[in-house]
Structures are given as C-alpha cells and as structure tokens.
Design goal:
The complex is a heterodimer of chains A (about 260) and B (about 210). Chain A has a single domain (about 5-250), classed as Alpha-Beta Barrel (TIM Barrel). Chain A is globular. Helices cover about 35% and strands about 25% of the residues of chain A. By secondary structure, chain A is α/β, with parallel strands linked by helices. In chain A, β8 (about 145) and β9 (about 150-155) form a beta hairpin. In chain A, α8 (about 210-220) packs across α10 (about 240-250). The longest helix of chain A is centred in the first third of the chain and has 11 residues, at about 30-40. The relative contact order of chain A is 0.15. By secondary structure, chain B is α/β, with parallel strands linked by helices. Chain B has a single domain, classed as Rossmann fold, CATH 3.40.50.880. Chain B contains six helices and 16 strands. An eight-stranded mixed sheet of chain B has the order 2-1-3-4-16-15-14-11, with helices on both faces. In chain B, β14 (about 170-175) and β15 form a beta hairpin. Chain B is globular. Classes of the chains: A alpha/beta (about 260), B alpha/beta (about 210).
Amino acid sequence: MLCKRIIPCLDVDAGRVVKGVRFIDIRDAGDPVEVARRYNQEGADEITFLDITASSDDRDTIVHVVEQVAGEVFIPLTVGGGIRSVDDVRRLLNAGADKVAINTAAVFNPEFVRQASEKFGSQCIVVAIDAKQVSARGEPLKWEIFTHGGRKPTGLDAVEWARRMADYGAGEILLTSMDRDGTKIGFDLALTRAVCDAVDIPVIASGGVGNLQHLVDGVVEGTADAVLAASIFHFAEYSIGEAKRYMAERGVEVRLA
Amino acid sequence: MSKVIAVIDYGMGNLRSVSKAVEHVAASGDRVRVTDDPALILSADRVVFPGQGAARDCMAAISDHHLNRAVLEAARTKPFLGICMGLQVLMGFSEENGGTGLLGLLEGDVRRFPSGMEHAGQRLKIPQMGWNQVHQTVEHPLWAGIPQDSRFYFVHSYYVAPKQLELASGTTDYGISFTSAIARDNLFATQFHPEKSADAGLKLLENFVRWDV
C-alpha cells in the first residue's frame, strides 16, 4: 500500500539553506545540494525548497539550486516561495522541480492556480496555506489564512480555502500552522484533521514538529498524507531513517530505505 | 559504440528529470537526446516515452507533433520504456475527459480509481501520490537487482487494465490491485516514475539502458 511520506524542508535564501524560527530568527545551515544529497541518502521521500530570498536580484538563484539538485537527487522536488506567474512555474519545472507550491499569489489571484494546473497538470501544483487559529477559547475552532510569512490576515477561512483550491485544480495542500511553526510542540492536529476531512487531495502537515512522536501524531490523529519538518532533521537531532523506524514501530507504513 | 537514447518530447510534462536520470545511469559515450523528431526516434537505439497530464491533451500533443507512427513503430521494434502517461496512451481507450481514444498498441482500458476507497480506516486520496509497492509478477531483465515489492513513486488518478492479464509485469495495491507495469517483447512500461524513485528507480533505468532485446 501507499505509505506516508516524510518531507524535509529547506529554507533557501540567496542560494543558502537557512531555517526560520517563527519566520523571524534565522540560522545558516549549509549548501542546498549537500543537504539534499544527505536527505536522499537517509531516505527522504521528497524534498521541499522554500525560497525566502527577499532581494529580487537574487530571485534566479533558486532556479540554479534546483538545476544542481535535480541532476543528482532523484526523488520529487518541490519549490515554493514567491511564485507569481505561469512563467515562474515553467522556469522551475524546466529546471527540474517536480512541483511548485503557490502561496500568496493564490490568495490574491485564485485563477492563477486554475491556469497553472490546467497548463502543467494538477500533479505539479501544490497550494501552500499558512493558517492561524482565530477562534477564541470556547468558540468553535476556526483558522484564517495569513500571507507574507504570516504577517497579513486575509479574512479567508482556512478549511474553506483548502476546499476551494482543490476545486481550482490544486494537486496537493501544504498546510502550515503559523501558531505552531518553530515552536516544537507538535502539529496543530485539529487544523490538520479539519483540512484532511475537507478535501480529497493529499495534505502535507507542517509547522511545530519537535520530536518523532509528533510525526506519528500528524499522520495518525491528523490523518495527513505526508509530514514536513525542517529543524529536527536540519540540525541532525534526528535522521530521516530514525524518524521512519520510529513511525514504522508504531504501525505507520513508511518507505524504509 | 556509443548508443543513442531518445527521450520523446511532445510538450507533455517535465522531461528534464527523465533525461537527467537516464543520463545519470547511461554508459559513458551514450547520448541522451530529448526530441520530437520522428526520424531521430526511429533511428535511436532505445526510446523512453514519458508523459504527464490529461489523456486528451497527450493524444492531441502526440498528433500535433506527428509522432503517432514513430511511437508505435519504436514500441514494436526497439527497447522502449513508457512512463506514466507513456504507458497509458499505449492502451485502446481511456475513461478520462469523457472518453478518449488512445494509440491502441495494447488491448485494454485506462480507468479512474473508484471514489470512496478506504484503507486502514483512512480515506484514499485521488490522485494516488507517493511511494507504493510494486509486486513483480514476472522475471524480467528490467527487474534485475530490484528487491521484490520495492517502493516506487506514483502520481496518478487513472490506471491501466490490460485485456490480457499476462501483459502485467508488476501490480500494486491502492484500494484495488492494479497493473503498475507491463512487459511485452521489447516493450516495458510503468505507471510509476522511475526517474523519481531513488535507488530502485535508477536501477530500473540502468537495467533499461543495458537491455538487449
């Protein structure tokens, strides 16, 4: 049977791997090709690059990073961050990306998701959703979409938005809890479960992983199809292989390399 | 003697990962050519036929690039590897896009996964996206050195149902058991993406570029 996927995420700034903690504090941690190669050897099921380059002068750097990685690492590669046009999508796919994750541009122009999925196929269009809980204690749970690295509220309900993006042709949802990102206290399981129940396409849970049990919780309680984590792998607290063995011992089907 | 490996480019999907992976395993001196030129496809020593996207778009693109004859001829005469839509379009008919006629090299249909499938209490998503096991149902040079039931990377909503079950060289379970690889004479084709399947996939591609039919 199909197994659950473990996806290490590399934040890339001007061609270098960094990891944001709550999207603000950043620590440098290496060369993307080297890191990708190591994750592949450890048995990563996919690799996601999040391009957080701010300067437009350096926007082409991620294309070169993808080219280099794609020539050496033969597992699916996803690239997100600053993708605004069909042309951006084409350049990244031509460079060797298998999927692109569209975030802010989808919020401002949902038709872009439809155009991109019609042009390149749903299988390569991931919609990234950054959600924050906005319901007060005692109220029914509710999450809202935020853009610009979690700084700008949009008024859009996260679960409704996921459903709409699936209708527009998204092939997958990358769901990040802004409340949990960088906290290491685990995924927002209620959010993950709510989005998984709402859509028929695969959902990747992201934001908050601090230990291996969190990964198990994400797929068992959250029912996510894949789990994405950065820092626990990035600073070699755990290897991907350790994570998979841990999950397998707890009855989660994984690919053991 | 250096050999030419043609990767057929008809504008459907990202061929860079396919050509990069084939280059990675090809013998030194072998030339990998990404091409839509029927003459080059017909003169190549072996042919890789990838593809992504919807059935109707793929068939239209094959036709627009005047590739119908070259693809069918290559698939009958030389080591030929179909990948994903490059497997599906070899069949007779697809349910996709309200019904689409295909190249018809192989008898059988392409069907959509039924909705509402479940496994271990969780709903199965469509498309199937991720790593699933391939059970090798025949011995074949392309399976050489690949452990039984190895996992390969899949992304698809439709699967092939060949009329002759003995065409299957591999099967996979996703709510139902379906044919995930076929083999006939010089032809091998996979629903999964060997170019994205890490070591198991690279081994299959390496076996292909060394396959003497």
